[in-house]
Structure formats: structure tokens, C-alpha cells
Amino acid sequence: MANFSKPSVPRFSVDVYQNEYLPEGGSEVNAIVTVTSTGGGTLAGATAAPRPAGPDAGAAVALMVDCSGSMDYPPTKMRNARDATAAAVDTLRDGVHFAVIGGTHVAKEVYPGGGRLAVADAGTREQAKQALRRLSAGGGTAIGTWLRLADRLLSSADVAIRHGILLTDGRNEHESPEDLKAALDACAGRFTCDARGVGTDWEVKEVTSIASALLGSADIVADPAGLAADFTRMMETAMGKEVADVALRVWTPVGTTIRFVKQVAPTVEELTGRRTEAGPRAGDYPTGSWGDESRDYHVCVEVPAAGLGQEMLAARVSLIVPQPDGSAQNLGAQGLVRAVWTDDMTASTSINPQVAHYTGQAELAQAIQEGLDLRKAGDIDGATAKLGRAVQLAGASGNADTAKLLAKVVDVVDAATGTVRLKAKVAEADEMTLETRSTKTVRVKK
Questions:
Q1: Going by C-beta distance under 8 Å and a sequence separation of 6 or more, which residues neighbour residue 346?
Q2: How many CA atoms lie within 13 A of 251 on its CB side?
Q3: CB contact at 8 A, 171 and 202
Q4: Which helix (H) or strand (E) holds 12?
Q5: Cβ distance 56 to 156 under 8 Å?
Q6: 160-205: per-residue pLDDT in tens?
Q7: E strand map for 25-160
Q8: SS (H, E, C) 368-435
Q9: What are the pLDDT digits (tens) for 61-94?
Q10: 223 — phi, psi (to 5°)?
Q11: 394/404 Cα distance (integer angstroms)
């Protein structure tokens, strides 16, 4: 059994990578903002982030296990799911609040029951594993009900970190897409959630939309035998989170507008539409919970054109944690995005390597998704063009993992030019793996 000691509070730093030089009349400014939190080390220029207001930052976790009838085909699937959930329970840190939910067309409390959360220790972990042994498959799938029960249970704990882990093997057939979206809207910002699809009978866009809305990760476990290792890794990551509800606050001066804000590493995640206003000319973009990690964000702003030799602050990026009273706790790190107008054509036309890299990574994710959609629709020429472009981008950016996944769907004739042929036969698991992992990026060397 893993028994993790509680990590120390992370320290945050912000670094900005950009080419601040614009030609005369230029108005678009792009920057890659790298946010880094370290669990115990000291970063130059970073100050220790105080804990959120209220109790010592604890955690609560809800494990949602698909128990629909399809989990019995083959029977090893349900057994692997039980074993994986038990492995995750074993990974819980002492003192963490937790619950196990069995999901069908309704949501049922498997452990501890009674609308409560258990507190992890040797005894409750063993009781939870005993309860898991009684899980059986039968019924339909209504994921929104699982999420709403998880929200009710997690909200009962006076903790900073609330996290869910959701496993499904099928399509969400026993509630409407509108019901699932309403549940996601209700849960967004209340807890984060990792989602996993096991086997190949589930819908990729459903699982990835759950993870996206709840700021978690999504992945496929094509072979149920791999569930235990995956669940253990997910829980280890969850146990490392120490600061919840971190937001990227972007302030811009008068006349400047934000074109987009997106996470670009470790995955591509559009944040522009999730902005909440935070006073005059400032907006907050949610990033979820943080432990010891680093992520990259692409910020694009449009500034009013200025004369040669002039310069301005195009945006100021900081990190905050919203407080219950409506205020915000600043995490003590910020970065500045600048604009300088010059007649030096070499300076103004140079594309910053980080910006170029992540622009390509975002295009790579989009090309894969569009290519697979066209393939499903029977548009062979369109799919070939999009997936060929994806092969070209993956090779150019050094995204070897994505290149390997693409090679299972297309025959690569020339990676440099993006010349490919669609494979006549593609294993369903290979296509679903490519689609699920299409947004995963590689970091640029800085």
C-alpha cells in the first residue's frame, strides 16, 4: 500500500516567451506564458504562496465506477475495474476524504454510504475494498447522475481539493446530451475530474468533454488489464495537488482586446470562453488544481497600432485563487507581455520559437480531430489531407508519441511533406487512442 506524506505548499513562478517587436501598423501580440509550481524547492523570484483561507488544505476524492450491463462483456472487465478501484483506494493518503460510486442509469453509493465521505486510514481502505468486491454489472448508463452524486458528496467535505475519477465502458445512452451538459455545467468549478474509457465501445467526445469541462485528463485504457496501473497513477497525481481553483488573471490596458487564451502544454485546452470578469479590464481563466508541475499557455492580444519607437504593456498575467468572500488571493507571481514598434524588419518578422512551436501543436490537434471526423464520414481525400498535415506537424515538432499513433491509422510515404495513405483496415482501439490523445503536446526546449 502506498502511503503518501502530505507535500508542502507549492511556490509559483511565471515566465513569458515572446517576440515583442511589431512592424509599423502591427497590432497582434503573441506570448507563451509558462506557469511552474514546485512542491518543496525554491524558485528564484518566487514567493511562498499562502494556503487558501479556511482549514488546512485537505482533499476529497470520489471514484465513479461504471457498473452498467456492458461491464460484464467480457466478465474480466468488471473484475479489472474492481481491482483498479481497489488499487486507487490503496493509494489514498491518510486523512483524505473519499467515496466510491457505482454508476448505471442511476448513481449508487458503494462506500461508505449514507450521503457521507469516509476518511482514509487502514481500516476504511480495507472496508472500501470489501465493498468493491460486491460490485456487479447490470443496468444502463447515465453519467450525469454519477457526477451530480459525486458533487453532493464532495461538497460535504471542508477541504480545498475536490477531485473525481470516472471510468466508463459505454455510451451515455440513458440520459440526453443536454442532461449531461447540464450536469457538467453544474459541477464545473466545484471539483476536477479525470475520465477514462475502457475497451472500445464508448464515445471519445463524451469522455473528453467530461475531462475538459472539469479540468481533468482523459485517456483510453483499451485493455482492461491496464486499469490498475492507470488508476494508481491518476490517484498519485491527485494526491500531489495542493492548491485548488487557481486562475490565470489577465489584465489589459484600455484599447487592447484579448483574442484568445489557451493552454498548450501538457495538452491543448481552449480557455477563452471560460473567462470570468475580474474588475476593470481584467479577466480570470480557470486552470484547476496544482501540485508540483509546469504548464504553458498561449495568450494572444490585439493592441492599438502605434508609431515607430513606441512601446506599451500589452498584458499583465498573474495567478490568483478566488476566495469565498469574492476577493482573490494573489499567488505572488506575474509576467508581462510587451509590444514595441520598430522599423527593423528582422526583429519584427522573427517568430518566437515557443510561439511557433505551440501554434503548430494546436494545429496538429485540430488536424487529427478533423481528419478522423472526415474519415468516419467517408471523405477519403479530405481525411488523407488532414491526417497528412498532422503527420507533417508531428514530425516537425518532435511529437514522437503522436507520430507513432498516426502511423497506426495511415501509411506514411513522406513525413516531411505530409504524404500519406489511409490504411484500409484500422483497429478501433488505435483510432480511438489517436483521437483521445490528439490534444497531448510536447514541450518546446527553452
A1: none
A2: 13
A3: yes
A4: strand 11-18
A5: no
A6: 999 999 999 999 999 999 999 999 999 999 999 999 999 999 999 9
A7: 28-38, 59-66, 97-103, 107-111, 118-119
A8: HHHHHHHHHCCCHHHHHHHHHHHHHHHHHHCCHHHHHHHCCCEEEEECCCCEEEECCCCCHHHHHHHH
A9: 999 999 999 999 888 899 999 999 999 999 999 9
A10: -105, 115
A11: 9
| Backbone φ, ψ for residue 41 (5° rounding) | -80, 175
**Separation in Å, CA 290 to CA 161, 220, 247, 316:** 9, 23, 11, 21
C-alpha cell at 26: 502591427
* Extended beta strands in 243-367, E state: 243-251, 257-265, 269-270, 276-277, 282-290, 293-302, 311-322, 328-341
Q: What is the mean pLDDT of residues 97-106?
A: 97
Integer Cα distance of 198 and 206 in angstroms: 13
Closest by alpha carbon to 198, among 103, 90, 98, 91? 103
**Is the pTM for the entire model greater than 0.85?**
yes
Judge whether 436 and 223 are in contact, CB under 8 Å. no
Residues in Cβ contact with 169 at an 8 Å cutoff, skipping those fewer than 6 apart: 66, 68, 70, 71, 77, 197, 198, 199, 201, 202
Cell numbers standing for residue 151: 458533487
Q: Compute the distance between CA of residue 226 and CA of residue 439 in angstroms, rounded to an integer.
A: 22
Instruction: Give the 3-state secondary structure of residue 14.
Output: strand
C-alpha to C-alpha distances, 320 to 52, 237, 292, 328, 337, nearest whole angstrom: 10, 22, 17, 6, 18
Residue type, 94: D
Chain mean position to CA 117: 25
Query: Any idea which residue has 485517456 for its cell?
Result: 219
Q: What are phi and psi for residue 217, nearest 5 degrees?
A: -105, 155
Place of cell 465506477: 65
Cα–Cα dist 228/211, whole Å: 19
Q: What letter would DSSP give residue 48?
A: B
Identify the CA nearest to 366 among candidates 355, 358, 378: 358
Enter the C-alpha cell of residue 214.
472539469
Mean pLDDT of 385-409: 97
CB 63 within 8 A of CB 85: yes
In the predicted structure, residue 43 carries a pLDDT above the cut 60? no
State how far the Cα of 289 lies from the Cα of 245, in Å rounded to an integer: 6
Closest by CA to 169, choosing from 135, 137, 215, is 137
In this prediction, residue 74 carries a pLDDT of: 87
